[in-house]
Design goal:
The chain is 44% helix and 12% strand. The protein is of the alpha+beta class. The strands form 3 sheets. A 5-stranded antiparallel β-sheet has the order 1-2-3-5-4, with no helix packed on it. 41% of the residues are buried.
Length: 355
């Protein structure tokens, strides 16, 4: 770690470096210098990102674009250069590292405390979408090919079932049946994009509540975090991912499925905030599919957790045996709860858009 720290142009001599956060993919550390200045240091997963240098190029381009729009009051991350002028460092063992300025004074939430928290998060992600509405998505690398290509996710799931690398397929047939029964509906957004009904945009692609930094006093959002998956995508996917995480009434790996449902007040709050921030930049069709996107992305993420369980837990980090299967269970239960409340979700969309 000392060698890695010496590669970056920190303002001060690092005196402490400790693990930070609870992300599933990258390894994150908080660095403290002798003058009190702080930074975030990350080892980027090359299992998740096969070409991490492209990831850095995307982040650099997007953050520079947002920084040129001070009227939007959108703070953004700032990459730290290395001593040879790059914005990443490849260690002798091949590990890929990058560093950010640490934005102090903010807090991250694992779950919204009130609907207002979720509204503010929606404003943050919507403002991010608005700030990049004029950025050509074709300029960005697709750092994870077919990331929200649900049809391709189903193809990969079938391959994992056929390989049965960890010998677990025999125990997950009900979960597989649930997903395959909904395959056609869950692939709707893919078909609409292919048909030109939904435009390609610059999207965040990981709009979990804990990727927003909040001011602890005002409750307002300060900054959108974790830009690793920023790339071309659908605005609906950002909306859907936020709902499946923040409007769920239980943790992502909750074992008591009776606790898992969708909180419609949280759904309403996020819908209001998202449309207040970027509704003017979205097409009518993009707005129409927002409720469906919540179901699609929830099902897709459930599929990914299930696939990783079948594969032997090689993508998403786990802290206990069976955790990825628990995560899959919560997502599939949330899909079924959305189905029960589908009419209400549509009514709330109509109510919010007709204000």
């Amino acid at each position: 770690m000392k060698e890695v720290l010496q590669q970056f142009c920190f303002d001060g001599e690092p005196v402490a470096c400790e693990l930070f956060g609870n992300g599933h993919i990258n390894r994150t550390y908080r660095v403290v210098c002798e003058n009190g200045k702080e930074y975030i240091l990350q080892r980027v997963s090359q299992v998740a990102f096969h070409h991490p240098e492209q990831l850095i190029e995307n982040i650099d381009a997007v953050t520079a674009h947002i920084a040129r729009k001070p009227e939007l009051h959108q703070q953004t991350l700032h990459l730290i250069e290395t001593k040879d002028g790059k914005k990443f460092y490849i260690a002798p063992d091949g590990e890929f590292w990058r560093a950010y300025s640490y934005i102090s004074g903010g807090i991250c939430l694992e779950a919204p405390r009130t609907p207002q928290d979720f509204y503010e998060a929606a404003v943050a992600f919507g403002s991010f979408q608005l700030a990049l509405a004029d950025f050509p998505p074709q300029r960005l690398h697709e750092t994870i090919p077919h990331f929200h290509d649900t049809a391709d996710r189903f193809r990969q799931l079938r391959e994992s079932v056929a390989a049965d690398a960890a010998g677990r397929v025999k125990d997950v047939q009900p979960e597989l049946d649930f997903l395959f029964a909904r395959e056609e509906e869950l692939c709707t957004l893919c078909r609409m994009q292919a048909a030109g009904e939904l435009p390609l945009r610059v999207t965040h692609n990981d709009t979990k509540l804990n990727n927003v930094l909040f001011d602890p006093e005002s409750g307002k959002a300060i900054c959108v975090l974790d830009l690793d998956t920023v790339m071309p995508g659908l605005s609906a996917c950002d909306f859907g991912d936020a709902i499946r995480f923040g409007a769920s009434t239980a943790a992502e790996d909750e074992r008591d499925l009776d606790r898992v449902t969708i909180d419609l007040e949280m759904y309403r709050a996020f819908l209001r905030g998202y449309l207040d921030a970027c509704g003017s930049a979205l097409t009518a069709k993009e707005i129409e599919v927002l409720p469906l996107s919540a179901k699609v992305i929830t099902g897709e993420i459930g599929l990914r957790f299930l696939k990783d369980h079948i594969d032997g837990d090689i993508y998403f980090g786990i802290h206990r045996p069976g955790q990825n299967l628990d995560r899959a269970h919560t997502q599939l239960k949330l899909v079924s709860e959305m189905e029960k409340k589908w009419d209400e979700m549509q009514e709330i969309l109509q109510e919010v858009t007709q204000r």
